[in-house]
Amino acid sequence: QVRLVESGGGLVQAGGSLRLSCAASGTIFSLNPMGWYRQAPGKQRELVARVYSGGSTNYADSVKGRFTASRDNAKNTVVLQMNSLKPEDTGVYYCYAGPTPGQRLGSWGQGTQVTVSS
Question: Up-side HSE of residue 62: CA atoms within 13 Å toward CB?
């Protein structure tokens, strides 16, 4: 069973930075495409960034140039570095592990709250 645990959320002023981490267990992590999603109050969950098995990434337009996603397959972790934060970045951030060839479904972490004050 895949388990994902996020950490690093908190309260920060606009313009500040936060670093989110997601630790994975119960999977051959290097095979999982990973993603970060967020959900603001009253809104649908949206994709923030993807990090593929080989390390390539893509980002939502709203975070390009400010956020950087990376992974360390040796440590089974994926990181989201968030700079120049804006109040509209506020929400619960979720780590997602896409299924490997041997898995049927992806897995979600429990989420971590990010609040950006103006």
Answer: 11
Q: Chunked in runs of 10, what are the mean pLDDT values of the chain (118 residues)?
A: 94 98 92 96 96 95 98 96 98 96 90 97
Tokens encoding 47: 């994709």
Q: How far apart are CA 48 and CA 90, in angstroms?
A: 12
* Residue owning tokens 């999982």: 32
The angle formed by the CA atoms of residues 25, 76 and 37, to the nearest 5 degrees, is 85
Question: Is the distance from CB of 82 to CB of 65 less than 8 angstroms?
Answer: no
Contact 19, 8 (CB under 8 A): yes
Strand partners, 13: 117
